[in-house]
């Protein structure tokens, strides 16, 4: 399998192969080789449907029956490759050659690849395209960078301040307390404080403790399992109690949630009912839904348990078995390699639930969670000792 973006006779080409056929998309407009114009390029695929967008002009390849997962574990190569033997002959139109020009701000699945000297694993013959201390990200929020004898300075737009225009003027004199985040509110010329786990109040200056965690929709807890290295990942188990008055929401994401290679087990609400999704490594998410049971809007506590025995999944709701399914009778992947990470209620600030879960769940959880137990542990998880924001005492 491969995915390749290249410049061919002045046009941008996207080529990808998911294991059965090579798809080719090409832009309508040419790229001018004057060395002075920056272009914005977006390319990718959803299943086997590809898209290519150059400066807002979009081309889409309509999906046809076939494979829809990109099965590759290689590194990303930018501008060239370490050996031309690595390039699939179908990935390029002519003999492969390296790129000559400037590249900046590369995002893969909404995560930026840092093109610094130290961040990549390797490279050769790459220089500084700007040639000065003013790079494209030095001054934030559309600030203008000016080269000085002692370095650089930023001229900031009206709403921003700081040495790199990184701080909103509405937060420059904020009173937000310990580890809190200041979120500017430009329309009211003010700000709000988002409290770190264990703090509450308008300015996050009141220390709190809780055994019942209350989530308000843009909340999350990230728990790191200290016993992950000793777990038998072929036999996983998690149980918890929850209550909510919402019809949608992510309750639990057991996994790193970083890219499509990560295993996960997820519990949430979709259209008023409990939804459990599991991925053991096939990149095929298997949703288990039992529409008979509504679990929202009744102000009751519900007890859910999910048991994974290799590829056999059991889901219990209020101690009744509602789902029992073997998601892969061939037993190709049998372990839940979740990385020791459990998210409750949502993900870090700025990471949208529908993006991270690729549409499996639509938004963060609003409601309460308590009595979380991993595997066969004798003690409940102490959610207070995790990290998170916007979580309150649900007692």
UniProtKB/TrEMBL annotation:
InterPro entries: ConA-like_dom_sf, EGF, Laminin_G, Neurexin-related_CASP
Domain EGF-like: 130-166, 167-205
Disulphide bond pairs: 102-129, 156-165, 176-193, 195-204
Protein keywords: Calcium, Disulfide bond, EGF-like domain, Glycoprotein, Repeat, Signal
Occurrences of domain Laminin G (ranges): 1-129, 210-395
Swiss-Prot/TrEMBL GO biological process terms: developmental growth
SUPFAM superfamilies: Concanavalin A-like lectins/glucanases, EGF/Laminin
Keyword Repressor in record: no
Protein name per UniProt: EYS protein
């Amino acid at each position: 399998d491969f995915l390749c973006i290249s410049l061919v006779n002045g046009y941008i080409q996207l080529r990808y192969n998911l294991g059965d056929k090579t798809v080719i998309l090409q832009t309508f407009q040419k790229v001018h080789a004057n060395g002075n114009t920056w272009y914005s390029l977006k390319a990718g695929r959803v299943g086997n449907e590809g898209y290519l967008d150059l400066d807002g002009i979009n081309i889409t390849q309509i999906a046809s029956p076939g494979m829809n997962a990109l099965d590759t574990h290689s590194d990303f190569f930018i501008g060239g490759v370490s050996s031309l033997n690595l390039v699939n002959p179908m990935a390029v139109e002519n003999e492969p050659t390296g790129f000559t020009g400037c590249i900046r701000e590369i995002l893969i699945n909404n995560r930026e690849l840092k093109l610094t000297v130290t961040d990549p694993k390797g490279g050769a013959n790459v220089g500084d395209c700007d040639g000065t201390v003013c790079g494209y990200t030095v001054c934030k929020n559309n600030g203008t960078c000016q080269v000085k004898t002692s370095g650089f300075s930023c001229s900031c737009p009206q709403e921003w301040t700081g040495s790199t225009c990184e701080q909103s003027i509405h937060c420059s004199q904020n009173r937000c307390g310990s580890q809190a985040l200041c979120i500017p509110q430009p329309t009211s010329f003010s700000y709000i404080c988002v409290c770190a786990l264990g703090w509450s109040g308008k300015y996050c200056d009141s220390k709190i403790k809780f055994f019942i965690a209350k989530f308000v929709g843009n909340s999350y807890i990230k728990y790191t399992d200290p016993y992950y290295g000793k777990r038998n990942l072929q036999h996983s188990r998690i149980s918890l109690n929850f209550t909510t008055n919402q019809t949608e929401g992510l309750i639990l994401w057991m996994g790193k949630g970083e890219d499509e290679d990560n295993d996960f087990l997820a519990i949430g609400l979709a259209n008023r009912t409990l939804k459990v999704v599991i991925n053991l490594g096939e990149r095929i998410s298997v949703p288990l839904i039992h529409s008979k049971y509504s679990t929202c809007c009744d102000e009751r506590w519900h007890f859910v348990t999910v048991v994974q025995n290799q590829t056999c999944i059991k889901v219990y709701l209020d101690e009744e078995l509602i789902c029992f399914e073997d998601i892969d009778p061939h037993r190709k992947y049998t372990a839940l390699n979740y990385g020791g990470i459990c998210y409750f209620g949502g993900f870090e600030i700025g990471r949208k639930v529908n993006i991270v879960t690729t549409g499996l769940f639509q938004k963060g959880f609003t409601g309460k969670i308590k009595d979380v137990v991993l595997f066969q542990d004798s003690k409940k998880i102490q959610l207070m000792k995790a990290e998170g924001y916007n979580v309150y005492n649900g007692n």
